[in-house]
Each structure stands twice: as structure tokens, then as C-alpha cells.
Write a structure and sequence with these properties.
6 helices, 0% strand, 118 residues, mainly alpha
Length: 118
């Protein structure tokens, strides 16, 4: 797995929220609510449209929070999902979930730091 898939540019994400720290924190919490459970491989491998919707959402929200590399990967998966075989799909889901787990941890740390700064 490329290590940069789990990188978040928090300053970039904050700029997406017009520098409003509280708004950005709320967006990060929404991200966690959406992706803390990680992607459900069973569902995504069975339902192409559900997978594409999930990758589209991941693409958009990852870009918003500053996780550009994961956003780019999700965009590629959204576009190519129908063309991939089940093994490629399963590998992609594992890769995304590994990145999401790391990103979620970074978000949790960031939010804790934000709360302690209040």
C-alpha cells in the first residue's frame, strides 16, 4: 500500500471549510461517522452500484478533509469498478480500508487536540 494514501493535509481541509475550525471539526466527525465502520466488502463485492456510490462519497469527503491521495484512488475505483474482477475489487477494498483505518486514527487525534485546545 502506498503510504501517502493515509496522509491528511489538515490545513488544506481547513481551507475547504473557509478556515472555520469548528466547521472543519464537524466535517471530520461526519467523515468518521461515515467511514469509521470501514467499507463492507461483502456488500461492495455483490452490488456494483452500491460500491460506486460509496467510492463517490469517499472521493468527495476525502477531498474535503484534505486526504487528496485517498480521494484520487476512490475516484479511480469509481470509474473502473465495473471493469475489475472480484480479486481486484477485494484487493482495492482492503487497500482502502487500511488507509481509512489510519486516516480515522489521525482524525480522532486531531479532534482530541482541538478539544483540548478549547
Amino acid at each position: 500500500m502506498s503510504s501517502n494514501l493515509a496522509e491528511i493535509d489538515f490545513s488544506r481541509g481547513l481551507r475547504h471549510c473557509d478556515g472555520q475550525q469548528e466547521l472543519y471539526r464537524e466535517v471530520l466527525i461526519c467523515y468518521l461517522d461515515q467511514f469509521r465502520p470501514l467499507l463492507d466488502a461483502g456488500v461492495l463485492l455483490k452490488d456494483v452500484e452500491a460500491a460506486r456510490l460509496q467510492f463517490h462519497t469517499l472521493k468527495s469527503l476525502s477531498a474535503t478533509i484534505g486526504a487528496a491521495s485517498l480521494s484520487k484512488l476512490a475516484a479511480q475505483l469509481f470509474t473502473k469498478w465495473r471493469e475489475q474482477d472480484e480479486n481486484e475489487r477485494a484487493k482495492a477494498i482492503r487497500q482502502v480500508n487500511e488507509s481509512l483505518a489510519l486516516i480515522n486514527g489521525q482524525i480522532e487525534s486531531y479532534c482530541k487536540e482541538f478539544n483540548s485546545a478549547d
